[in-house]
Predict the 3D structure of the following.
Amino acid sequence: MTDLVHFIALSLLPSWSWLSIAERLRACESPAAVFDRLLATHWPSEPDQRSALYARAHAAIDRAHARRITPVAWSDAAYPVALTTIADPPPVLWAHGSTTAFDAPAVAIVGARAASEYGLSVAERLAADLAARGLAIISGLARGVDSAAHRGALSAGGVTIGIMGSGVDVVYPREHAALARDLQQRGAVVSELVPGTPPLPQFFPMRNRIISGLSRAVVVIEAGEKSGSLITARCALEQGRDVLAVPGNVLSGRNRGAHALLRDGAKIVESADDILEELRMPSLGPGPGAAPGAGHDPILACLTPGEPSDLDAIAERSGLTTARLLPRLFDLELQGAVARVGGGRFVRVDRSC
């Protein structure tokens, strides 16, 4: 609980400190030490800052407990490994629903709030098809393409995660309260912001890095030239994720942003198969009769039973980039050959006993 309070206090610091926080946590500094260092450096003449932030952290824990919201700190084994690879991951995620939703490989579907019937239909169909094949669908619970993607995943009985630009107990827009409850049953509503945080405009661009960071790929549908979806696409490119786009009507103006992505090399999406092909995932899980972890897997060869390794170490040993390494590690985790431990590390599972 003590570490959790420190992680939450870190999450309450200004956004310009996030890169420094991540660097120091990756260097295995304790959250308390990182917090003390930042306060001493940036607020040396404000002694009340420490007690105020700790009071807010404790209040957030109490509010979350009362509303059955789960805090998932950086050091927690449930913290999504994909998110630990981005430059500025949140010290804490707040989840309303099941944290097991983070376990499935994920694809983000984002796009216009004022989407056409065509855009809504495509988003719902793609999400349903991907969810039916075992992928989690990530989006922002916004009007338009986002909500259509969530509903598509739900219609297929799949997992879907909504990333909020507010606390998870402050649903925005309000008319999506019922949809948010459905997500909690089949996935989770997630935010880096402490419970009770209102949906302020500056929070929505911030959450886009989480939408892309949790995903193997981002699919853009009907994005205009100034669409927030393009921020998500840019985050995805910076994070080494794949960016794909659905072509659309050239007369409406709704698709100029998505078409610009296509001109810049994004893959065209016409069906779920296009996405799976780009991700090199023609099917999920091992083939019939395959034993978990069977064969001489080069990733497993880089791991030792009982000795956790972080992504940088595995990447160095395997020669793979983290963008290519993560999908393989997720597959091996699904097969039971590796397990996640805190801080975004993996350990090989000893199957000899």
About this structure: Confidence is low (pLDDT under 50) at residues 283-295.
